[in-house]
Amino acid sequence: MNNFIKYIFILSIAWSIAAKANPNINIKTGILIDYHTDKVLYELEPDMSIYPASMTKIMTAIVAFDLLKSKKISLDDKITISDKAWRMSQAGYSSMFIMVNDQITVENLLRGIIVASGNDACVALAEGVAGTEENFAAIMTEKAQEIGMTNTNFTNSSGLNDPYNYSTVRDIAIMSKYLISNYPNYYEYFKETEFTWDRTGGNPITQQNRNLLLFKNLGVDGIKTGHLAVEQYSLASSIMKESRRLIAVGSGFKTIAARSAQSRKLLYWGLTNSETFEIAKKNEIDFQVDTWLGRKKKSPGYTKEDVYYTVEKKNLRNFNVFLEYAGPIKAPIRKDEVIAHIKIYNKDELIKSVPVYSAERVEKINFILSLITSFNYMIWGDA
């Protein structure tokens, strides 16, 4: 039988919605990305070098989460507080308010870092797991390079003033995605709105998360604020609406109020003016491909990667997805053999092609049935 190219129409959107070209954000540098596709929806000087301030603490947490994941430390491990860590709470910086020689669990220090933005907790954790803060900062920079943060260097665990502690909003977005993707359970800490520390030598102290978007029932579940006089106010934020997630990073907001309002505006602009479609999930059987002379009429197919596509709503009418294959596919078909391709088009332009693999082996029918099937096809054109 002569094979022919077969197209199965998966998805087409045939309407167009007016979209705002620019969210008009008053900011020095910023970026908005789609979590699933990495598509940049908005950017303004995204590779400008900045001092990341307390957004540095995202990497501090990531290094700790790496150690937790590899079981080199546990949440219940206790760390003895040094004089250096304690002095950070006496210097007017944001603090957890720990005391010298306190024995504090890794979990409490993490919550002190993530929720209360405690610089003292950062130093304590760094010293507890790496010996010195300098050693810990070297691990942070190494991790940054590993995950593709090409314009970042860390010299401390808190983000306090240091000309050699620098990054970009693009790199911080990469770091934020890595955090959410690799540590979904630990990421829950970032949406906590307050943390109460039963401190030594005083009444328990409750501090609220500085990310005011967490209090507005918007779907925002992180990530981290920052402030330095030279940079003004900054925020890495993420919003989840149904199955879609966006990540925004901005630096140079004039006030705390502007930081929240402008970040909210940017996130909602992204949700309103674009859409992300889930086309296939990694290792899930989402497709059925016709077979020829097989003991099964269909060969189930899967992809080895998640397949998403983000499109601006003004361009929805041009978006089409097809399952393309030369078929029916002649049996026998091996398990994990490429049997088709998902083709994503913008008008006539091929944007992406993703292979689809057979989820199981399909045996060929016996010789007699093969002859009958071939005869029927020649006479009736019915395979």
Q: Estimate nothing, just give the exact number of structural domains.
A: 2
Q: CATH superfamily name of the largest domain?
A: DD-peptidase/beta-lactamase superfamily
What is the H/E string?
EEEHEHEHHHHEEEEEHEEEEEEEEH
Biggest beta sheet attributes: 7 strands, mixed
What is the CATH third-level topology name of the largest domain?
Beta-lactamase
- The helical percent reads 25-40%
Q: What is the end-to-end distance? A: 10 Å
Low-confidence stretches: 367-373
How would you portray this structure in words?
By secondary structure, the protein is α+β, with helices and mostly antiparallel strands. The protein folds into two domains: 4-14 and 279-380, D-Ala-D-Ala carboxypeptidase, C-terminal domain (Peptidoglycan synthesis regulatory factor (PBP3), Domain 2, Sandwich), CATH 2.60.410; 29-253, Beta-lactamase (3-Layer(aba) Sandwich). The chain is built from eight helices and 18 strands. It has helices spanning 57-69, 83-88, 106-114, 119-130, 133-146, 169-182, 256-273, 367-380, and strands at residues 4-12, 29-34, 40-44, 78-80, 103-105, 194-197, 205-208, 220-228, 232-241, 244-253, 274-280, 285-292, 298-302, 307-312, 319-327, 329-330, 338-346, 349-358. The strands form five sheets. It has a seven-stranded mixed beta sheet, with no helix packed on it. A five-stranded antiparallel beta sheet has the order 3-2-10-9-8, with helices on both faces. α1 crosses α5. It is elongated and about 80 Å long. Residues 367-373 have low confidence and may be disordered.
